[in-house]
């Protein structure tokens, strides 16, 4: 009897295996994926076909129609760049749409090439749900929505998406795209651009231009050393602090050496008294959270009163945003542009801890750079390093 049952089980398993298509067959069988099927090089297809426990975010034909023919042509002529882009569309793990939590999760991809990322464990996508739809946020807060979910193949699952994902770019280029030109200009003034761009696994709290403008009277007399102390107080190295990994009440050491305190409540996420107004902007080497105040390493007092304690007591606003002279202006703001979605942005709300069960990125990666601009970014980064 047991032998008969085992034979029956084996036959059933074989039948299921035969009914589940290979990756190549799954791509060929979908009329929505003909462009992608034509782009995937044979060696990449063979590698992915032999993999197991993966999730492929497959751009539909309509997604590639948003990309200029010139960029697509250049991409196919650069195998390294094409492979990097394809790797960023493969999640390390098999996740049906039902596994994506409402509060979001940061899921590592197969993109580990140091030309394009220095996040340990692989560059991530921010997976979340919105009105019952699964959405993936990537570089410059570009977003892509799943249009057809849970297409099974022998190595895992395919989700068809409406927009090609954007590989996250450097901190400085992301600051430009986000209109954070005071941050970029301050980094230039302090000679910190390369340091911030190449330090592995960083969390950057980036003040808005208005935040710098609000304390403008306190800035003209700063020495380079003083400015460096302020800017490095906005950077945590060795930990990528996505919002789901921040814990209420924790005190975290910054590159400056002084600590910042994280507060999470019904009003949002706060760093000392600064509120996170845009969270989880993915960058090549970690994550940026946009905040509404400039942090002061010499005044980290936390207040429970509305409005908090001014970090720069006595400072007064100025008419123009400091450090912006000579800085580039955004040509494709975050949340839009080539390869991007419709402009929806995650806000400063988030879960105090990760509760999704999906894997999170860890720390310690080797330095690298990337640049912004969707598919064009991949090509520009490749050209820089080749």
TrEMBL record:
Region: Disordered, residue numbers: 305-360
Protein's GO biological process: macroautophagy
Name used for this protein in its record: FAS1 domain-containing protein
Gene3D superfamilies reported for this sequence: FAS1 domain
A Pfam family reported for this protein in Swiss-Prot or TrEMBL: Fasciclin
Superkingdom of this protein's organism: Eukaryota
PANTHER family per record: FI19380P1, PERIOSTIN-RELATED
Coiled coil residues, start to end: none
Transport as UniProt keyword: no
Lineage summary: Eukaryota, Fungi, Dikarya, Ascomycota, Pezizomycotina
